Structures are given as structure tokens and as C-alpha cells.
From TrEMBL:
A GO CC term attached to the entry: cytoplasm
Enzyme class: oxidoreductase
GO molecular function terms noted in the UniProt entry: alcohol dehydrogenase (NAD+) activity; metal ion binding
CDD domains noted in UniProt: 6_hydroxyhexanoate_dh_like
Cofactor(s), names only, from the UniProt record: Zn(2+)
Family according to the record: Belongs to the zinc-containing alcohol dehydrogenase family.
Highest rank taxon of the organism: Bacteria
Positions of the Enoyl reductase (ER) domain: 5-347
Entry EC no(s): 1.1.1.1
Protein name (record): alcohol dehydrogenase
Pfam families: ADH_N, ADH_zinc_N
Keywords (A to Z) from UniProt: Metal-binding, Oxidoreductase, Zinc
Length: 352
């Protein structure tokens, strides 16, 4: 098998040739036809998490190089272990990558993405930046039917992450403003999902006028440019009052600083993005305001199944994406690090 691996932080990924994996037990081998490129891939490539008051290296939390990134995976089943069921060679499947231990209380509750001993693909297990990936059980494979395979691959993270965050934000009346911070791949996924769920008042905030135009094309009803010192006031003015629901797909020090003052009493902010940073806020403000601060990371297996069904219904619009050959991975990582990507990049296998 072929893969592109991180050997040193922020250095070019190296192409590696290894023997094709042989499944055992309930394992399933998937030949990767499409793999989305995510901002968290960029974070892991750099090897540092920005925790606000300190920088945490991936080595310090047990993530070892060489590392095969990639967690938005779609492909064809090429081999199955002797105990694998409900799948056959030739099936085309989307892979749920947020694997837990399968045994703890959290996993038994269907929230493997929150498992303390999680082993997600592309992070603690080899991921989709290669020709094949080993999936431990067929339950993590989802039939996407006739969906565009490149677009469907993005549902495993950007789509799922947006969908799960939106579910945490509900209930919200269709005509009540929801503020979406960030018009990158996550934010655009959030816009089209909100539209598909019937929402009619989506306000998008971003630092880029170009990305705000893309957000409007995707279905945003109003936009706010987040440059200057009066961003909070402009958000409140655009909405028409303090905001009850904000979903922050950036979640850095700057966005947190203008989001929290914009909240109405009883308001809530869903904190999603992993750009990193820190916020100081009076504890009394949270209590007196009745504010809810809700963290959201990826989503559950059932939520991914629900999202795929929403897409199959025809209600979910496509987000902009660019499909490129897997061999262009290093150029794609460079473009993403420079903020030069509109929507998503999806790596795809090259014609034989």
C-alpha cells in the first residue's frame, strides 16, 4: 500500500510503500478513493495544539510519528476479516473515523467521539492519506448510495461536526437568528445544513469579504465582516438585538472576544473550532446572564448516519470543494495553511 506520512512537524509528507494490510477478526480493509483535507490535519501536521496559556505538542499526549493523517474517508471494501459481517468486497462506504474503545460508559452511550481512550483514524490509527485503511468493524461503514463520493467524504468530519453542533444549538425557531462564525468548510457545512433543516435567518461572520460572498451564495441571509473594533456592535445591529444562539466554527481568542458580549440573557454559544486561544470572562456574567457555553467536537456515529440520510433526501445542498490527486497532498497542505482554500479540498485516487 501507498501512504503519505508526517515524519517531522511542518515538513513535507513523505510517500511510503508498505505491504497491503490483511484484516483479522472483524476488521475491514477499505481502498481509499476519496479523503477530505481538514484543518485538524493541518494542526496535527504542525504538531502543536494552542491551549491558550500554553502550547501542547502531539508527542506529549501520546500521538507518535510517523503519522498517516486523513479522517474524511470514502472508498471500496477490498478485504474482510473472518468475523466481519454486514459488508462484502466491492461495497462503497463512508468511514466513521471517531473510534472509541467500545467498552466504556461513553462508548456504550453511543458517543465514541468523546471516549477518553479514543483511537480515531488519522490521529491514533493510520488514516486516509494513503491507498488503504483498516477499519476495526463494519458498523463504522455507512452506505452513501448515489451521493457524490467526493462530497460525501467531507460528511465524516466537516459535515458531521457542523451537524452535531447545530443539534446542540436546537431548538431554535426557524425565523430566529442563528449566528455562524466562520465561512470556511465548517461554516459552509453549517449553512447548508441549517437551510436543509428549514432555518430562515442565518447570519454569518467572517474576516474575509470573499468568503462572506461564498457564504451568501451558500444560503446565508446576512453577513458581518469581522474586521475592526466594533464587531460585537455590528453583529447585534445586524441581528436586531442581542443574540440567543451563536455557533463559533473558528473559536479562537478573537472570535470568543466578540461573541460573548453579543449574547442575550439566556443565550448560548456552541464552541466548535480548534484554532486555539483563551478568553477571560467574569463568572458572574455567566450566572446572571443565564449563559450556556457548550463545547462540541465531531459527532456520534448515529449523527453521521442521520446526516447521510439528510443528504440522500435531496435537501442538503453541496458545499464548494476541489478534488485533486492524492499526490498533490503537500501542495494542498500548503494552500490550507495559507488560508487559500475556498470550501474543502478532497484528495482522490488517480486513474490507473
Amino acid at each position: 500500500m501507498q501512504s503519505w506520512q508526517v515524519f517531522e512537524a511542518s515538513e513535507v509528507l513523505r510517500e511510503v510503500e508498505e505491504a497491503n494490510p490483511q484484516p483479522v477478526g472483524s476488521e475491514v480493509v477499505v481502498s481509499v478513493s476519496h479523503c477530505g483535507l481538514c484543518h485538524s490535519d493541518l494542526t496535527l501536521w504542525k504538531g502543536i495544539f494552542d491551549m491558550g496559556d500554553k502550547q501542547v505538542s502531539i508527542d506529549s499526549i501520546g500521538m507518535k510519528r510517523p503519522l498517516t493523517l486523513g479522517h474524511e474517508i470514502l472508498g471500496t471494501v477490498t478485504a474482510i476479516g473472518p468475523d466481519a459481517t454486514d459488508v462484502k468486497v466491492g461495497d462503497i462506504r463512508l468511514v466513521y473515523p471517531w473510534l472509541g474503545c467500545g467498552e466504556c460508559e461513553t462508548c456504550r452511550a453511543g458517543q465514541e467521539n468523546l471516549c477518553m481512550q479514543g483511537r480515531p483514524l488519522g490521529m491514533r490509527r493510520p488514516g486516509g492519506f494513503g491507498s488503504h485503511v483498516v477499519v476495526p468493524h463494519s458498523r463504522y461503514l455507512i452506505d452513501t448510495g448515489d451521493l457524490d463520493p467526493a462530497l460525501a467524504a467531507t460528511y465524516a468530519c466537516s459535515g458531521l461536526t457542523a451537524y452535531s453542533a447545530i443539534r446542540k444549538a436546537m431548538p431554535v425557531r426557524p425565523d430566529e437568528a442563528i449566528v455562524v462564525v466562520g465561512a470556511g468548510g465548517l461554516g459552509l457545512s453549517g449553512i447548508v445544513i441549517l437551510k436543509a433543516l428549514g432555518h430562515q435567518n442565518i447570519v454569518v461572520v467572517d474576516v474575509s469579504e470573499e468568503k462572506l460572498k461564498i457564504a451568501s451564495d451558500a444560503g446565508a441571509h446576512k453577513t458581518v465582516l469581522s474586521t475592526g473594533d466594533d464587531v460585537t456592535a455590528r453583529i447585534v445591529d445586524t441581528v436586531g438585538r442581542p443574540v440567543r444562539t451563536i455557533i463559533d466554527f473558528v473559536n479562537n481568542s478573537q472570535t470568543a472576544a466578540f461573541c460573548f458580549p453579543a449574547l442575550a440573557r439566556g443565550g448560548r454559544i456552541i464552541m466548535v473550532g480548534m484554532f486555539g486561544g483563551q478568553l477571560t470572562i467574569p463568572t458572574m456574567r455567566i450566572a446572571q446572564g443565564g449563559l450556556s457555553l457548550i463545547g462540541s467536537i465531531t459527532g456520534s456515529l448515529q449523527e453521521l448516519r442521520d446526516l447521510v440520510e439528510l443528504a440522500k433526501s435531496g435537501k442538503l445542498d453541496a458545499i464548494p470543494y476541489e478534488a485533486i490527486p492524492k499526490s498533490s497532498i503537500n501542495d494542498a497542505m500548503s494552500r490550507l495553511s495559507k488560508g487559500a482554500v475556498k470550501g474543502r479540498i478532497v484528495l482522490q485516487e488517480e486513474p490507473a
